[in-house]
Each structure stands twice: as C-alpha cells, then as structure tokens.
Design goal:
The protein is an all-alpha fold. About 65% of the residues lie in helices and about 0% in strands. The longest helix has 17 residues, at about 50-65.
Length: about 70
C-alpha cells in the first residue's frame, strides 16, 4: 500500500460519512504539515528512516484531529 492508502485507510474505516474527496484533502493537508506531500504515492520501503517517522507523525495527527 502507498502512503496515500495507508493514511486513508483509518479514515475510510472509522469516518464513513467522509467523502473520498474529503479524505484526500485531509491526507494531503497532513502530509503538507510534515513536509512530505511529494511522498504521497510512494511505498513505505522507498522512504528513509526520517521520512517514515514523519509519516508516523502524520498518521497520529490524522487520528487526533478527526
């Protein structure tokens, strides 16, 4: 699964009232917060250790802010 799919999965599962467009906007905005918007279509194996940590932070931010 790509970074987009990984970050979108919990939103799709727990927030079924959100449209796919809303989910995409939240994922992109959160990646922008951690300066990784260019990594949205990459696989986790393609990221450096620091990038993976920032993706983890983005994941937590999505859970807290929703």
């Amino acid at each position: 699964m790509t970074i987009r799919e990984n970050l979108s999965f919990p939103l799709k599962r727990h927030f079924d009232h959100m449209t796919p467009v809303q989910i995409e906007e939240k994922v992109r905005a959160t990646l922008d917060l951690v300066s990784l918007e260019e990594a949205i279509d990459k696989m986790p194996s393609e990221l450096s250790g620091g990038m993976k940590k920032r993706i983890g932070l983005a994941d937590q931010l999505l859970q807290i802010l929703n």
